[in-house]
Amino acid sequence: xxxxxxxxxxxxxxxxxxxxxxxxxxxxxxxxxxxxxxxxxxxxxxxxxxxxxxxxxxxxxxxxxxxxxxxxxxxxxxxxxxxxxxxxxxxxxxxxxxxxxxxxxxxxxxxxxxxxxxxxxxxxxxxxxxxxxxxxxxxxxxxxxxxxxxxxxxxxxxxxxxxxxxxxxxxxxxxxxxxxxxxxxxxxxxxxxxxxxxxxxxxxxxxxxxxxxxxxxxxxxxxxxxxxxxxxxxxxxxxxxxxxxxxxxxxxxxxxxxxxxxxxxxxxxxxxxxxxxxxxxxxxxxxxxxxxxxxxxxxxxxxxxxxxxxxxxxxxxxxxxxxxxxxxxxxxxxxxxxxxxxxxxxxxxxxxxxxxxxxxxxxxxxxxxxxxxxxxxxxxxxxxxxxxxxxxxxxxxxxxxxxxxxxxxxxxxxxxxxxxxxxxxxxxxxxxxxxxxxxxxxxxxxxxxxxxxxxxxxxxxxxxxxxxxxxxxxxxxxxxxxx
Length: 483
Fold this sequence. Notes:
Layout: H1 10-21, H2 44-55, H3 67-83, E1 91-95, H4 98-111, E2 120-124, H5 129-138, E3 141-145, H6 156-162, E4 167-173, H7 185-194, E5 198-202, H8 210-215, E6 232-236, E7 248-252, H9 255-258, E8 263-265, E9 273-275, H10 284-321, E10 326-328, E11 336-341, H11 352-361, E12 367-369, E13 378-382, H12 391-408, H13 415-422, H14 431-440, H15 453-461, H16 464-478
Parallel strand pairs: 2-3, 2-4, 4-5, 5-6
Antiparallel strand pairs: 1-7, 6-7, 8-9, 10-11, 11-13, 12-13
Helix pairs in contact: 2-10, 3-10, 4-5, 6-7, 10-12, 11-12, 11-15
């Protein structure tokens, strides 16, 4: 593509954009059970879009230039703190998403301890990969601690044993993404506090819905800033606060803990750079949209939405358990479900990657997850309020998809392909080798894939380090412009 020599009419540009969007996964209606969060509330998108437009040209780089953004950010942080056990001393920042919030929590902990050489962050092995990304970017050692193999919960004793003089942060999840379970935050936070180490709770997914579950009578474990030893917490507004993409909140128990998050530089002849987050220029659009949605829905609105999603989770959890050959992993306490082939049967006769493809053909997207430690290959479901009412259709299609996958049988990789994978060195993988793997798998090319079971089986056969390298190559193929 090159730019047109003469600009196109606005409506033509929008028509082309609409045409491009027809190939995307649906973002509304509850059929995409990952990546998107749909309240199902009529008019909410339009409100957010109007609020976004009103502030899209503003810049959060300088709050003195745009005091409206400062006011809205402080309002949002105050609302999050009130919901999540914060006290009068609690402070925070609005970020672009959960990854930025998590990375800033790691950065703040590292920057607060310049005396520590080769710092460490202690993570349950189920912690979100964003923390590994932070460790990679900031030169920190990530110490991963195995979780309970049956419950997938962090092991407080093992987490405590992993803390040493180089540890600057301990991380737990509420809930963990892969299995939807809430780690034992009080026990881990207490162990971190005894060593004078910060403890971050990744509540990016659960932070805006678990308090409402508790208000509805669900037995939600303690996880928020009211827990002694918890020093910071992240919660995404573009998840169960149902705000548009691009808004998360990082809360700190007090201002002294946040100070090391900020960046200032006067070491050049321009303006003194002063940033509260990793970004400098920040459009005010996402912030204004989130502020508008929060104020429009209010506490009662979020309680009602939580009731809907809780009902959907209960129905789906029960219904999936009744499908022959499937079971739910662990004991999820939130809105996330992990579905596996039932290992009580010696040979279930199908694999979950084929089930995922069959569900895609039926108009649903379930996210494949690879095997890791005691967790076998599985399908991830993010349940939202928009799934309420459509549970029978999803369950019927899932049962049909399992039957179809059983008729197809498990994916079988050619012996030469598995042998080639076993002999690959991740550090030396070339584009030619990757293309050869695709050819052996009978795939035309990464950009033309319609069914993913074969390539997921290939990736599942690779150890994690090689899988990472293969996916980097896959990403490079996808992000290559056509001439």
